[in-house]
Amino acid sequence: MQEQYEIVSRVESLFAFTGRLEAWLAATQTAAEQLTLALLAKAFRGELVQQDPADEPASELLQRLTASRAGTDNPKRSRPPTPTRLTRPFAASLQTNREAARRLGCKPIPERLAARWHT
Q1: Which of 56, 58, 63, 77 has the fewest other C-beta atoms within 10 Å?
Q2: Does 106 fall in a domain?
Q3: Cα distance between residue 28 and residue 34, in whole Å
Q4: What is the pLDDT of residues 38-84, one digit of tens each?
């Protein structure tokens, strides 16, 4: 009987330890997330390394880039049209549609809808 009490006591102490460990893990994860955010904020503010005084400020760089782009005629590039691959002429597919509908005893797909589905 004494041995059972000892086992229960050890199991309860291990459960308590597990609870403390889980709480510590949750707190550590929260701290790590906050540290990551703080590190990113410092990086964007330029506070992680010493700044070279010879570097031009970002605002001047942006003004210079905007001015250089305004002077060139650089229209936005668009995606080239995707070629459509026709498996058979459209008129033939409409004829096939009509024939299939007649064989099945139903109405054919309207031409305006068939044009959308034709590939």
Answers
A1: 77
A2: yes
A3: 10
A4: 888 888 887 888 877 888 887 888 888 888 887 666 556 667 666 55
Place of tokens 């001015």: 67
Q: Give the total number of structural domains in the chain.
A: 2
Question: What angle is formed at CA 29 by the lines to CA 23 and CA 35, rounded to 5 degrees?
Answer: 135
- The boundaries of the domain holding residue 30 are 1-45
pLDDT in tens, 13-51: 999 999 999 999 999 999 998 898 888 888 888 788 887
Alpha-carbon span 17 to 13, nearest angstrom: 6
CB-based contacts of 68, cutoff 8 Å, min separation 6:
none
Whether 112 contacts 102, CB under 8 Å? no
Q: What is the pTM of this model?
A: 0.37
Q: Decide if 76 is inside a domain.
A: no
